[in-house]
């Protein structure tokens, strides 16, 4: 389960439109709900907000977080090189 402090840190990097990225990560890994369908945006949001717990979705959220954080740091380095 994602804790309140983790949620605050995640929000700073993820900002907006991160749920479709998580959904695509889950689709790549062929992770589906018990009913055999992809997880909904609402359910992913519930996991992020700590209402529900799902390890697979949490891992996907942290993977998207890590990718975005690396992208931001690469952009900072690139800007320093140019300026």
Task: Note the topology.
Blueprint: H1 4-14, H2 19-28, H3 41-48, H4 55-82
State the helix count.
Answer: 4
What is the H-and-E element order? HHHH
* Proportion of strand residues: under 5%
Q: Percent of residues in helical segments?
A: 55-70%
Quick overview of this protein structure:
This protein has 83 residues and is mainly alpha-helical. It has helices at 4-14, 19-28, 41-48, 55-82.
Describe it for me?
By secondary structure, this protein is an all-alpha fold. The chain has one domain (4-82). The chain has four helices and no strands. Helix 2 (19-28) packs across helix 4 (55-82). The longest helix is centred in the C-terminal third of the chain and has 28 residues, at 55-82.
Defining key terms:
4 helices, single chain, mainly alpha, 83 residues, elongated
